[in-house]
Specification:
The chain has helices at about 1-15, 125-175, and strands at about 25-35, 40-50, 60-65, 70-75, 85-90, 115. The protein has about 180 residues and is an alpha+beta fold. The protein folds into two domains: about 1-125, SH3 type barrels (Roll), CATH 2.30.30; about 125-175. It has a six-stranded antiparallel sheet, with no helix packed on it. β1 and β2 form a beta hairpin. The longest helix is centred in the last third of the chain and has 48 residues, at about 125-175. It is elongated, with a radius of gyration of 27 Å.
Length: about 180
């Protein structure tokens, strides 16, 4: 009974669809970053050197890239709400799941042979994500309209004050 309960909770947390990512793929991972009260989306592009537990809630990929001569690796949980989307750019021809040997290689020896693939795998339809994006757009639009209305009210108030001051100057000049 408890195993079924755990499975049902895990299935409820999963995303509807995720991109079929394999070791050797060159991917762009778009991740939400929260800084203070603002959120932005940061992109990380690199080669997938490891995939773990593909069909579970804990499915994870490790992406490696060389930046300024230094190797940088990041692990992403594919079903995490912070991972906005994963786009496969290029598929590499590899024969193993764990490509840790790429850590010791640099330059041309670290390249993987390309392999043809169907780019339609990147088209993942997630209605919940689209709904959240629409709500975010509507909230941003409402905030912009509210800010514009506040600015217009402030400008109207300033114009009224200016007219009042000009009228006072007119009266002083006539007297």
């Amino acid at each position: 009974m408890s195993l079924q309960l755990v499975k049902s909770v895990a299935d409820a947390q999963k995303k509807r669809e995720v991109v079929d990512v394999r070791s050797g793929d060159t991917v762009r991972v778009y991740q939400k970053i929260k800084e203070g009260n603002k959120t932005r989306i940061q992109m990380f592009e690199g080669v997938v050197i490891r995939t773990d537990r593909k069909n579970s809630l804990n499915s994870r990929i490790t992406v490696r890239r060389i930046t300024s001569g230094v190797g940088v690796e990041k692990s992403y949980l594919l079903h995490s709400p912070l991972v906005e989307k994963v786009v496969v750019i290029k598929r590499g021809k590899v024969r193993r799941n764990n490509l840790t040997y790429l850590r010791e290689r640099a330059g041309k020896s670290a390249r993987l042979t390309g392999k043809a693939f169907d780019k339609s795998i990147n088209e993942v339809y997630d209605p919940e994500a689209e709904k959240a994006a629409e709500e975010a757009k509507e909230a941003a639009k409402a905030a912009a309209e509210e800010k514009a209305a506040a600015r217009a009210a402030e400008e109207a108030e300033l114009a009224a004050k200016q007219a009042e001051v000009e009228a006072a100057h007119q009266e002083a000049a006539e007297a």
